[in-house]
């Protein structure tokens, strides 16, 4: 009988076909950069958990990579005889195996017993976490371990880092003992089901669907979708089209928006369908001009770049808090001259306060401040105002001047190449074809900007590389705001201005 790891059983819970492929065709798996990044965050949070649950450093760590499975299981059993924290203790029983993030010794009726804590980098308990804990409880108890309680610890997003590497309070525990212990038969059923699935010669016949990225992004999606219908105009291009309706239509063999009855579409979806299929551009120039007519020059065009850490590195910040480290600002003067200023802090220190002061100085006192998707920048400005009350009035005054170009673009313009999206990465090359993000060197989107920032502030990054990354970040953010200038020019009908 095959022994399944916890991850394989959780793969089964997501999709039986995924489990079969994990076992029989692992070579087909292609994890995305986002998936790899989530793994790294998990490792980082796990390291911090060891500090939290073993502040004296007297615990033991099982290293599966160096010890191998057999020795890891043996040493785990040996360590259960010692009253000390154990990290990554491994157990194998009942047809499954699992490694516990944290095992803590406790006393139960005068005898040594154990409390388990599973650590997650999320900010709440998810349904799939409950499956995870149920498997852990089953395997550990089946291995004969006197397990008395099991909790899931996740990140408390309201916690504020006090500095000095003090992470006590970062994790919030949720006791799932009763629930996990009650699911023994259910887990046994998963193991039996897994045995039957992997014994099949052929992979399960399961179509792609919502399960492909819920609760995890599946690394086999490219393989599973290769033979799926490839419509010329996918329904997915219809903005905010209900997922339930997509599934219903797919069950009827309908995948192309040309096959969708018009009475199922709202005005925006109908526009996307009509102009995509006819390969023509929709532009309500008169409406766009009216939208912008009330805003005089000077005008400012603003964009932020932010970074977030699951485990904060700067005092006074919270887990996953969006921290501004860069802005670009194009200023169009009353005389029609275009000026540019920016801010970028790669010192490795918290850039927030310097960012805030620089932003106030750059934005002047009057004139519209154009952004694209205003909710993001405005939220960051409010956060800065809360953190630095002495300059909050000046910061919030910027928010009062914000004008969002996204609703104007969404209402007044659509090009078939947008494929139902109004992200600036889609709209810019449609409106201004000579400007493209993929022509940039090194940094071409927000995710790459965050990665570049992390590389630049890392102590092992040399001066030459840091300077190169700095230029890439500046060029990327500058294009974001110049893109807004050019969009404004088209929407405002100012073709007389050479920008």
Properties at a glance:
499 residues; alpha/beta; Lambda Exonuclease, Chain A; Nucleotidyltransferase, domain 5; 2 domains; 7-stranded mixed beta sheet; 5-stranded mixed beta sheet; 18 helices; 14 strands; 17% strand
Describe this structure in words.
InterPro entries: DUF2779 (IPR021301). This is DUF2779 domain-containing protein. Pfam families: DUF2779. It comes from Sulfuriferula nivalis. Residues 300-423 form the DUF2779 domain. The chain is of the alpha/beta class and 499 residues long. It has two domains: 4-199, Lambda Exonuclease, Chain A (Alpha-Beta Complex); 286-491, Nucleotidyltransferase, domain 5 (2-Layer Sandwich), CATH 3.30.420. It has 18 helices and 14 strands. Strands 1, 2, 3, 4, 5, 6 and 7 form a seven-stranded mixed beta sheet that branches. The chain starts with a strand and ends in an 8-residue tail after the last helix. The mean pLDDT is 94.
Write a brief structural summary.
Pfam families: DUF2779. Residues 300-423 form the DUF2779 domain. The chain contains 18 helices and 14 strands.
Draw up the topology in text.
Elements: E1 4-5, H1 6-14, H2 16-24, H3 33-53, E2 60-61, H4 64-79, E3 86-93, E4 96-108, E5 111-119, H5 127-142, E6 147-155, E7 171-175, H6 177-181, H7 184-199, H8 221-225, H9 243-251, H10 267-277, E8 282-283, H11 285-292, E9 299-307, E10 323-332, E11 338-344, H12 352-363, E12 369-371, H13 374-387, H14 392-400, E13 402-404, H15 405-412, E14 413-414, H16 424-431, H17 446-457, H18 463-491
Parallel strand pairs: 1-4, 2-3, 5-6, 9-12, 12-13
Antiparallel strand pairs: 3-4, 4-5, 6-7, 8-14, 9-10, 10-11
Helix pairs in contact: 1-2, 1-5, 11-15, 13-14, 15-18, 17-18
Protein name: DUF2779 domain-containing protein
Domain DUF2779: 300-423
